[in-house]
Amino acid sequence: TTAIPTRAAPISLTEGVSDASGVLTTAVGGAFSLPPQLSTLVPPPPAPTGGPGPSPEAEEETTTTLITTTTVTTVHSPVLCNNNISEAEGLLEAPEYGGGTFFGGLDCTYSVSVYLGYGVEIRVERLNLSKEEALSIEGLEEDRRFLLANETLMAEGQVIRSPTNHVAVRFQTYRATNPGAFRLRYQALCGGEISEPAGVILSPDWPQNYGKGQDCVWGIHVQEDRRVLLEIEILNIRRSDALTVYDGDDLTARVLGQYMGVHQRFNLFSSANDVTLQFQSDSNDPVFSLSQGFIIHFKEVPRNDTCPALPEVPNGWKTSSHPDLIRGTVVTYQCEPGYDISGSDILTCQWDLSWSNAPPTCEKILNCADPGEIANGVRRASDPRFPIGSHVQYSCNEGYTLEGSRILTCYNRDTGTPKWSDRIPKCVLKYEPCLNPGVPENGYQTLYKHHYQAGEALRFFCYEGFELIGEVTITCVPGHPSQWTSQPPLCKVAYEELLDDRKLEVTQTTDPSHQMEGGNIALAIFLPIILVILLIGGIYIYYTKFQGKSLFGFSFPASHSYSPITVESDFNNPLYEAGDTREYEVSI
């Protein structure tokens, strides 16, 4: 007999359906193992002819066949409930349950996009989900997704912020009836992360006026081999508010610039591929006034390590501190004679590879410089701009007299700037001059003239061989009349030569060699004299002492030796008897 395959009895829906988290699945025979009750053993195929015949029991086993049954079930896909939202603020809620059945559950995606340069702030107002339900919030940046929060990290009242302007909220439930509930309120948040190659950043609530208390941070990121060009088209904020640009990816980077108030259009370059902008408005300003805000265009540009080349200036030239216009290079502009520089003459290549100022120009000079006012006087100008051909007339106040040209004229020069015809005059006190005090005898004076104005000085000198006695310089002191500070000096004969000779003698005397020589000469002179004096003295003593005679025939009073006189012989002396009393005086 031949086994005829038979179809297995159909399996009830409840037996063929597997409830896996509320999702209907399909079991297909052959792909999955079958239940035991659906399997029937069948005998193997008959043996080849020509062999020994099987026994009756073996023949009965070969007539048994295996019946394979395929079970087919119905699949229900989840109900899709996607929504794209582009409003600046709004409400995201779970689909309302109307009492029906969601075969396959729900898979809802809410795509929220706000304008470029803003982030998204989401506040969780309600959250009631079962364990079989999922809720996730993702930030979208180009083709990249990053998780911000899911149902396990959320709680009512929580605030979730996305740095990008595009977020996706996905809700999944596998419950056929009575799904969970949630309510999320979102709004565009100033600031955010931008990875576009170009775009626009607007102030909060643009084109309306921004409010106070704003604190917005934008991060702009371009390709690594590029840098960022910021074109500030409009910048009109209050002076108490600030827009700060950082040369990097956070607020600790180097500051490219900080701006307050109103500014004209200008550009900024970053040194690398990241730049950060921060806008802050004062929340405590008691006199808050509305301001327009700002518009900033950004785009990526090729990276360069030098500043842009500067143009040549007509009628002038420029010099550079470095052959390559690298960071820190200083370029100085100068103009030819007759031209004046208009603008900044020194430009510096900054860290953002932009120049500190715009290139200047050289303009033809058609005016003289202001000659200035004078003290104790006034001036009258024919034209306050002092063009070529104009005049300036000076005059002094009462009691002062003018020294210098009274009228100055501005005239042109072909190879230089216009120039005044003379120096500016000055006003001096009007005093009577001092008369020349005269020239000292044997002397002379400098700047000889008849009259000297107040304040002038006069110097005196003597001829050679004469010395000056008195003040060398005298000054005319103003007054009525003016007077000299002192009388003129005198010139007297100088005795310096004689003094010099005496000094020479003293010097020679104090010299040891000269002292020895002088001593020998003195000894040779005075020794014979001393010997002669001693000889004369000896002769004198000899004659006066021993001979009783005068050396020169004169009688000298001398002390005599008297013998003792007795009483009897006192009057026997003839000298006393004669009463002769003579006195002799000898002078030597």
From TrEMBL:
Record's keyword annotation contains Disulfide bond: yes
Domain CUB as annotated: residue spans: 81-189, 190-301
CDD domains registered for this protein in UniProt: CCP, CUB
Localization (cell): Endomembrane system
GO biological process: adult locomotory behavior; cerebellar Purkinje cell layer development; synapse maturation
Annotated Pro residues bias: 42-55
InterPro entries attached to this UniProt entry: CUB_dom (IPR000859), SEZ6_CSMD_C4BPB_Regulators (IPR051277), Sperma_CUB_dom_sf (IPR035914), Sushi/SCR/CCP_sf (IPR035976), Sushi_SCR_CCP_dom (IPR000436)
Keyword terms: Disulfide bond, Glycoprotein, Membrane, Repeat, Signal, Sushi, Transmembrane, Transmembrane helix
Ranges that cross the membrane: 521-543
Pfam families assigned to the protein according to its UniProt record, in alphabetical order: CUB, Sushi
Domain Sushi: 305-364, 366-429, 432-493
Disulfide bonds: C81-C108, C335-C362
Ranges where the record places region Disordered: 35-61
Domain of life: Eukaryota
Any one cellular-component term (Gene Ontology): endoplasmic reticulum
The family this protein is said to belong to: Belongs to the SEZ6 family.
Protein's name according to its UniProt entry: Seizure related 6 homolog like 2
